[in-house]
User: Fold these one by one.
Assistant:
Number 1:
Amino acid sequence: MTAEASLRAAPAVVVAQEDGRLVALDAGARRLLGDALGRECWRAIGELRDAEGLPCRTHCVRALLERGTMAAQHSRVLLGGVRHSLSCLALDGRVVCLLSPASDQRPTAWQLLSAREREVLRLLSEGLTTGAIAARLELSEATVRTHVEHMREKLGVSTRAALVSRGYTLGFLG
C-alpha cells in the first residue's frame, strides 16, 4: 500500500515538542512517515514525496508556540494529487498536527452545526481559548465548553484540533 493510499484510510497525527522534534505519532502517521520519532517535524512532514503547498519550515513549531496556547495554523495541501487539510495546534508547550484527506462531501444532517456552534468553531480555528471565546461572544465558559462538546459529538472527533480540521474538511471553515 502506498503512503497516499494508507493516508486515505486514516488521518495522521503527530506531536512535536518545542524544538520541533516529533515525540508522538499515531498509526496513520507511522504508516505515512515511518519511524520519524526524534526527527524535526518540518523535515519529516516537509519531505513527503509528491506533496505540494506544505507550510512546514525550520522553526515553524517554535513560531506557532510563541503565538500562545491554542494558536493554530490550517493549510490545504496536495499529497499524491489528493487534497488534504493540515491543521497544527499549539497545546501545553507542544504542537499537535493532523493531516487528513479533504472531503468533497457535504455534512450529513447529524453533522450540521448551529449558527452559534459555527461561531465558536471559527474562533477555535483562530486559536482562541475557551475564556477568550466566552468573552468575545458574551457567553459563560461552561456554555462554550458545551458547544465544543456538542460539535465534537456531531463531527465524531475527540480533540479540539481534530474538530477544527474536520470543520475545514466539511466546509464550515474557509
Number 2:
Amino acid sequence: MKWMIASDVHGSALWCERMLAAAEAAGARRVLLLGDLLYHGPRNDLPEGYDPRAVAALLNRWADRILCVRGNCDAEVDQMVLDFPIRSDYAALDLGGRLLYATHGHLCGPDDLPPLRPGDVFLFGHTHVPFDETRGGVRCLNPGSVALPKGGSDRGVLFLENGVFTRQSL
C-alpha cells in the first residue's frame, strides 16, 4: 500500500488541494500528516491561499484515509472541525521488522530521538525543511512543508511504498 506523508499545511487551502491532488495522482491509499494543519502560527506569515475552514473541509473528505499527529500549532479547537483524530503527539507503525515513528518534531527530533533501534524510521515535520539522514542507524526523514517552506527549500511530500521513501515537490 502506498502512503503519502506531509507536514505543515498551516491553513493553506491552495497547497492542501495540491497536496491531495498529488496523493490522488500517485495512487496513495493513506495519508500520514505530521501536524500543523489549520493555523499558521505566530512566527509565520499567512501562507498563500490561507483558508483554514476550506482546509478542514478538504481534509475531511479524506478522513477515512488520514492518520495524523498533533503539531505545535494544532489546538484542541481544531479537533472540533476535523473528522479524524489529531490529538496524539506521535504514531508508531510496524513496517514488518522495523518501526516507523511519526511525530511533528517539536518535542523530539533527529538530535533527540525517542527510543528506536537501528533500521527504524523517524518521521518529523516542524522545521519546514526537507531532511534525510541516518542517525545511530535510524533513518530520519522530513518531507518539508506543504505551505511554508523554509531555508530555500521547495514545497514537498514523501511517498512510502514497499518500504521505499521518495520525495516529490509540489
